[in-house]
Amino acid sequence: MLLSVSPLSSHAAEAPLDAWDAVGLMTPGINIGNTFDSTGAWETGWGQPPVTKEFIQSLARIGFKSVRLPVAWDTYSDKGRITEKQFKRIDEVVNWILETGMFCVVNIHWDGGWIDSDNKEKFPDTFHTFSKEAEKKFRSYWDQIARHYAGKSEKLLFEGLNEQTEFENEGSMEKAYTTLTRVNQLFIDTVRGTGGINARRLLIVTGYSTDFGKTSQKEYELPKDSISGRLFVSVHYYTPWSFVGLSEDQSWGKMQSTWGGEEDMKQLNDLFDGMEAFSKRTNTPVYLGEFSMCAQKERALSLLWTTSVFHAALKRKMVPVLWDIGGMVSRKSPYGPSDDLSEIKLRLRNMNTLQPGR
C-alpha cells in the first residue's frame, strides 16, 4: 500500500459522496499521462503502449486510490461529436478503473489548445480568450460526456479543463479571472443539467493557470453549485520550473541543478500554506492534479522534491495525483512500481505523514 486510508462506512457508501470525505478515499492518485491526451495518434501517439486491464490492476495493487485520465476529445471527434470509437475505448478503461474500487477522474485536457485559443497561428483572432466557438464546443462536449456517463458510479469524477485557464487577452487580469469563473460555471451548469447521478456527482473546477499562487488570490472566485459539498479545486505543482523542468539554460532563465535548501523548502511551504488557507476559507478541498519531475536531475534530489511535494499535500489534506508517463509504474508486464516510487513510499511511511481526510 502506498498509504493507508480509512474505508467507506456502510452509511457513507449509501449516501452521496461529500468532497471532503472523498479526499481520503481518493488519496493517493496517479495520472495515465501522454496517452489519451495525445494529439498525435491518440493512445499510442506519444510513444505509450496501449493501456491494459493488468496495468490498471497493478495501480490498485501498488496502493493508488484514484486514477486521473486526461483525454483529448476534440482532436478525434467527428465535427464536434464524440465518436462511438472514442467512447468505447474510454469506457473500457474507466470500467477497469472502477472495477478495482479506485476512483476515476475524466477531463478535457489540452486537446490542441482550443479552449483558450493558446496557439496564435491557429487562433490569431481569439488568442488566449474564450471565444464564442470555444464556448459552444465546451458546452457541447460536456453535455455529451455527462449524458454518456450519467449512470456511472459516483466514483467517476469530471474535471472541467486542464491548464488552459489564463485568458490573458480578455482585456485585463480582472477580466481574465472573471472569464475562468464563467468557464468553470458553464462546466458545472452543463453537467448538473443532465440530471441523474450528475446532479450530485463530484466535480473538479480549475484554478487560475492551475497555479498555487494565482489561485489562492482573492481575484480567483469559485463558481456556484446547486448542491453543496461536491466541488474540488484543481491546481498543479511544477515549482521551481528551473529545477523541475529545465535540463539546460534557456534564453529566459537558468537551469537550477540543486534543490532542497532552506529557501526551496520555504517556497514550497509558503505556496502550500497559501492553498491550504484558500481551501479553508472557501471550504473546498484541493485536488493536486499533477506534479512530477520532468527534467533529468540527480536521483537523490528528484526523490527529495517528489517526496516533499507528496508530504506537503498530505499534511494539508489535499489529494496528490502524480503525473506519470510510465516512469513510476511500468506500462508493460510485469507491471510494477519503479525503484524511485518504492523509495518514495518508504520515505512517506518513515515521515509518518498525516492521514488525509478532514
Q: What characteristics describe this protein?
A:
single chain, alpha/beta, TIM Barrel, disordered C terminus
Task: Tell me what the structure shows.
The chain is of the alpha/beta class and 358 residues long. It has one domain: TIM Barrel, CATH 3.20.20. 37% of the residues lie in helices and 10% in strands. It has an eight-stranded parallel beta barrel, surrounded by five helices. β7 (286-291), α10 (299-315) and β8 (319-322) form a beta-alpha-beta unit. α5 packs parallel to α6 (173-192) and α10 packs across α11 (339-350). It is globular, with a radius of gyration of 19 Å. Mean pLDDT is 94; it is low at 4-14 and 354-358.
What layout of secondary structure does this protein have?
Blueprint: H1 10-14, H2 19-26, E1 29-31, H3 53-62, E2 66-69, H4 84-99, E3 103-107, H5 132-148, E4 156-159, H6 173-192, E5 203-206, H7 212-215, E6 231-237, H8 241-244, H9 262-282, E7 286-291, H10 299-315, E8 319-322, H11 339-350
Parallel strand pairs: 1-2, 1-8, 2-3, 3-4, 4-5, 5-6, 6-7, 7-8
Helix pairs in contact: 5-6, 10-11
